[in-house]
Amino acid sequence: MKFHAWFQCFSGCTVQYRLDQIVYRCESCGGLLEVQHDVNALKQRSGAEWKHLFDSRSGRLSGVWSKKEVVLPELEERNIVSLGEGNSPLIKSERFANHLGINEIHIKQCGTSHTGSFKDLGMTVLVSMVNQIRSRVRAVVCASTGDTSAALSAYCAAAGIPSIVLLPKDKVSIAQLIQPIANNAITISVDTDFDGCMKIVQEITKDTSIYLANSMNSLRVEGQKTISFEIAQQMGWDVPDFVVVPGGNLGNVSAIGNGFLLMHDLGLISRLPRLVCAQTERANPLYRSYREGFTNLHAVTAAKTHATAIQIGNPVSFGKAVRALRATNGIVEQANETELVNACAEVDRFGFFNDPQTGVALAATTKLVQSQVIPRSSRVVVISTAHGLKFAEFKTKFHQGRLPEVNPSLQNLPIQVPAETAAVRDVINGRIPA
What we know:
It contains 16 helices and 13 strands. The protein is an alpha/beta fold. The chain has a domain at about 90-110 and about 220-410: Rossmann fold (3-Layer(aba) Sandwich), CATH 3.40.50.
């Protein structure tokens, strides 16, 4: 079957562009673009047929390219740039569910992807398209709070395409900073925040030979929506009651919403989950808007937060996120620094190793369960956006008591003893009574 997709203005214009055109905003009204698919063509296959096809590819292709028809159908196979992204585990924790007092909870560990974050899912799509039009592109650039730069630099390195990353000075972890450096990206530390870096990127990409890789380029969102497909597939083509997503620039919550909406439209799932976007209290423009019925976006100056990857005060994908939340009867919740720091440590005790952004989502989940917005009978999926090892310094500072928000009861440091069996036995018996 022949499938087709294109860019279309999100603001309601009828203007369309080919996906191989270098364009990020509507040239008529200036609105953001989004990828539209020929849904009527996709519906020529039944929901059952799509499920059978996707299941037949499970484990053989990346989590993104196993869904190529609903992502980037006209990309030539030879131009795919893949690093085995996606297919991340959906981990069910009965102990954590019992602790919260709800029926079921899973954590979708997107940080197991190649560069340690969900950004790989979008970057494989974007860089693959650049690979197809590389005669018109001399480099790809992004502004980043860390994870986007890692994904861009890795995928560009795999394809042999030069990459440029702008990082806000002293606002990303060492583990995040070293990734683009190791992949030979032109790494520029800018004395500003993410929003300041993004303004510079938008100016630079007026030169169309430098391709923009941030989520205002909706090719990124197309790859990230496969998170929804993976969740449904891993749950036997069923969906949870709630999906909780950390939100910064808001591309991921809109992508995940789009994935569920498309699956519902094609008959792969029979109902929609409620989306929850979780923001840090220090960078919470969507939460503020939600409290006012989404009437306006109130951009904020993002304050310093441990959740550095979502320290964004003027999110590009605000409108798209609002649409996804409205379509799924969604919720926006926030978490303060104390809540996110201790949620990370608390849930680690159930076998996880959570980054601070996921800590925001976990803290928001806890608050919504306690307020009974999430009923006790619910099945919940929390999106873990990055691997905790990228934030090892944050974890270390917690257990050393070097973060002001630490709950001392959650600290756990090595216990130093002499090289004597009796001393070791005393420690064990002191912690675990015989």
